[in-house]
Design brief:
Shape: elongated
Distance between the termini: 49 Å
Structural class: alpha/beta
Bound molecules: adenosine-5'-diphosphate, magnesium ion
Number of helices: 25
Length: 593
């Protein structure tokens, strides 16, 4: 697994996880049996929420369904460790091969993890294209279906009855080992190539796709890994409790684990630890209250439901006061250990081999609106082509089709041997077509470096990704912002970062949709000078949308003009300037901003 974060962050992070978990295990040796049990439960919960955070935190999709995988881990591992005599007595309907198998805890857990992985792959394939709340609801359905299966499959699960006789193998050190595995995997995944891509997709799926990220695929990978870790937590829990029933893996426990995730902050492992700690402490406290306490001078009576109500309130407070959780979006070491980016080399960013992009008869309809109407254009390799037209004339829609963001309703687009209408959107960057967006689409909470790095890692096989990233940042003069969070930059700098992110893909043609919007005169001039340089020195072709006609005239070799979705003129700046239809379109519409 390739790790994208520097060693100076990852090593302290992993060491701290090791120390924290070992400390819990050691402390547990000096406490009462009750507290020792609570600490085991704490470690198992932490295992589970590291797993949930790995998926939900990095993808941005909240999951209600992960306890289904915990259940599979619990039941599958228990079926394998349950002594034969107990199986004979409690599960007479088991198939012979299962009735006769008795494994140790770790082999059984491993087997349960494999079963869960297979199941998660099946489910993942079914839901991997779903986004946002649709995906969340699908996970809720998963939880309910799994509950139904556990209750219905009596021969194997004893149905709603208690499944018992499971050897109590999970002591504090077993839990500690399991928990450490989950924490380390979650931490490494977050900064793996897949994890960084997925976080890019979380921040802006369209932009991530445009720089070569196959977002559904990364979601799928995270889903399967997190399911595997959920199974581990399930096996630990089953062999701690010794007896359980399907309701252990249903709403109540989902609620408590989600509380930990939300309170701590689901996008970091630091957050998982903070959430597990706070919610465990509060729960223990409230549970004491629930049974009633005698304060000497007055007795607080028993109040049922105190714990649930208390945790519910805690979630509410967290959502209002700290929507990203106690830890925020950064791991502790990202906050406290300064990055040193010494020694990152640069490489010349040579444009990809290019062929003309030929678009024929592109028509795109949105309901009744024909946004582009039978547009035919050719973009020659290495040219600077201006695309102008009044507001709403279809410029952005045309570029969206040329860059794979939108499929044309009719028409063809080709580039050499590539049929661009059939090419999956995340493949455009690698065939040499990169872009920026009219409304800036950065990965807002990632650093400037990471914004560009994601693109470097997802194009050209990820080769020289660090050096290419530095080179692109230098080209656009934003390297001094490398470690700033992207959304803290000025508009002008954000636009430059967006262009750097496109350049790092080493495109042969770059689409710039109003790149100077929000820039002052000086910034605009600087940008145009840079664009000219990119074209001259690197041979990158540019399609530029802008409203500033003087600027477009000065920079472009050729200009095409759209009006009401139709191509009305095409030619050199001089030809277009004198074109009657163009003059009419511009004079005729008072608003061409
Ligand atoms: P321009 O970039 O030239 O200002 P657009 O391509 O954004 O123009 O828009 C062209 C037309 O298509 C407009 O009438 C706009 O309202 C419509 N349009 C653009 N995108 C969408 C969409 N996603 N859904 C519906 N209508 C759209
Ligand atoms: Mg537009």
């Amino acid at each position: 697994m390739r790790i994208t974060a520097p060693r100076s962050h990852i090593l302290p992070a992993l060491s701290m996880l090791f120390i924290a978990v070992a400390a819990v295990a050691v402390v547990s040796g000096f406490t009462s049996a009750t507290i020792a049990r609570s600490l085991v439960v704490f470690l198992i919960s932490l295992t589970a929420i590291s797993a949930m955070g790995l998926y939900s935190g990095n993808s941005g999709i909240l999951s209600f369904g992960h306890l289904a995988f915990m259940a599979v881990g619990a039941y599958a591992s228990s079926l394998l460790t349950l002594p034969a005599n107990i199986k004979g007595a409690t599960l007479p309907g088991l198939p012979d091969w299962l009735a006769d198998t008795t494994l140790g805890f770790w082999p059984a857990t491993l087997a349960a993890i494999f079963v869960t992985i297979a199941l998660a792959m099946l489910i993942g394939l079914a839901i991997w294209r779903l986004e946002g709340s649709a995906a969340t609801i699908a996970t809720l359905a998963l939880l309910i279906i799994m509950h139904g299966v556990l209750i219905g499959w009596r021969d194997v699960t004893r149905g709603a009855q208690t499944f018992f006789g499971v050897p109590r193998e999970t002591g504090i050190w077993t839990a500690a080992i399991g928990c450490l595995v989950a924490l380390v995997v979650a931490r490494l995944y977050r900064d793996s190539v897949s994890g960084l891509r997925l976080r890019g997709g979380r921040e802006n799926a369209i932009a991530a796709t445009a720089v070569g990220v196959n977002v559904p695929r990364e979601r799928f990978i995270a889903f399967v890994i997190s399911a595997a870790l959920m199974a581990l937590s399930g096996a630990l829990l089953a062999h701690f409790l010794g007896a359980f029933s399907p309701k252990k893996f249903y709403f109540t426990d989902t609620f408590f684990l989600l509380a930990m995730l939300i309170v701590g902050g689901m996008s970091t492992v630091t957050g998982a630890i903070m959430g597990a700690t706070v919610v465990t402490l509060v729960t223990e406290l409230l549970r004491r209250l629930e049974t009633g306490i005698d304060l000497g001078f007055m007795a607080i009576p028993q109040v049922f439901g105190t714990t649930q109500i208390g945790i519910g309130l805690l979630i509410l407070v967290a959502l209002v006061k700290r929507p990203d959780g106690l830890s925020g979006l950064l791991e502790w070491e990202e906050r406290f250990i300064p990055l040193r980016r010494k020694g990152v080399k640069t490489v010349p960013l040579i444009a990809a081999q290019s062929e003309p992009v030929i678009a024929q008869n592109l028509t795109k309809r949105f309901g009744g609106v024909v946004a582009t109407n039978d547009v035919t254009i050719t973009i020659k390799p290495g040219e600077i082509l201006g695309l102008i037209g009044p507001n709403g004339s279809g410029k952005t829609t045309l570029v969206n089709q040329l860059s794979g963001i939108l499929r044309p309703s009719e028409g063809r687009i080709s580039m050499g041997a590539h049929d661009l209408v059939k090419l999956p959107p995340h493949r455009f960057a690698d065939v040499g077509l990169a872009r920026t967006f009219q409304n800036i689409r950065l990965f807002e909470t990632l650093s400037v470096f990471q914004n560009v790095h994601v693109a470097a890692l997802s194009t050209k096989g990820g080769i020289d990704a660090d050096a290419r990233t530095m080179s692109a940042l230098n080209l656009m003069d934003v390297a001094h912002h490398a470690d700033a969070q992207a959304n803290t930059l000025s508009y002008g700098d954000q636009r430059r970062v967006e262009i750097a992110r496109a350049l790092v893909c080493q495109p042969s043609l770059i689409f710039l949709d109003e790149p100077a919007a929000g820039m002052n005169r000086e910034e605009t001039d600087d940008l145009m000078e840079r664009l000219r340089g990119l074209n001259r020195d690197l041979g990158i072709g540019i399609l530029l949308i802008d409203h500033d006609l003087a600027l477009v005239n000065a920079l472009c070799d050729r200009i095409v003009v759209l009006n009401e979705g139709r191509l009305i003129a095409e030619g050199t700046p001089d030809e277009v300037r004198q074109n009657k239809a163009v003059i009419e379109a511009y004079i005729g519409t008072s608003n061409h901003s």
